[in-house]
Amino acid sequence: MINDELLFLMNIAKVQAVISRKFNSLSTHGLGFNDFVILYMLNNAAEQRIRRIDLAEKIGLTASGVTRLLSPLEKIGLVARETNERDARVSYVVITDSGKKIFEEAKGTAELIAKEILAFKKNKSLRPFSEFLEGLGGNIE
User: Fold this and answer.
1) Interatomic CA distance for residues 18 and 2, integer angstroms
2) What pTM did the predictor assign?
3) Would you write out the chain's pLDDT as a tens digit for each of its 141 residues?
4) Considering Cα of 60, then 64, then 69, then 74, what sign does the dihedral take?
5) What are the structural domains of the chain?
6) How many CB atoms lie within 10 A of CB 92?
């Protein structure tokens, strides 16, 4: 037997896997769920750009992990690199016009998927659950 805390965290991991699988339909927009999250973060960032290290921190990845996710998005022109004029060691990720367009198209699909996943909640508020997840570090905004 394992303790309740470990079982709870294992169930969170399973829920994350189920959510990711359900968001596979974002592939009709050429995106995975993590790609969508990155475009969301960039679309809502000040000046629609963010330092790579800050992006990694916001989505809970390492710097190298976020770089691996950004590489294909750069290749297809949804994001671009931008250097800092004052400090060459700092690089930014910016969302391109194509990235903005794809994000807007995918947002409707993602919102429908989210409603389907959470259909069981009926009219209950998600706020207490959101606060709980924030306590675990799940504060994406």
Assistant:
1) 22
2) 0.86
3) 899 999 999 999 999 899 989 998 899 999 999 999 999 999 999 999 999 999 999 998 998 999 999 999 999 999 999 987 787 778 899 999 999 999 999 999 999 999 999 888 777 888 888 888 888 887 776
4) positive
5) 22-135 (1.10.10.10)
6) 20
Place of tokens 């009709």: 28
Q: How does DSSP classify residue 139?
A: -
Q: How many residues does the chain have?
A: 141
60 phi/psi in degrees, rounded to 5 = 80, 30
**Closest of 40, 55, 41 to residue 104, by C-alpha:** 40
Backbone angles phi, psi at 86, to 5 degrees: -90, -25
Per the structure block, which two tokens stand in for 88? 């060459």
For 56-84, the DSSP string reads: HHHHT--HHHHHHHHHHHHHTTSEEEEE-
